[in-house]
Amino acid sequence: MIVEDNRADVYLLKRALNKAEMDFTTIVFEDGESAFRYIDRNPVPEAKPLPDLAILDLNVPRRDGSEVLAHIRRTPKWRHIPVVILSSSPTQVMLDRAAHADCYITKPCELNEFLGIGERIRDCVDASRMIRKQA
Question: Closest Cα partner for 10 from 49, 59, 56?
Answer without folding.
Answer: 56
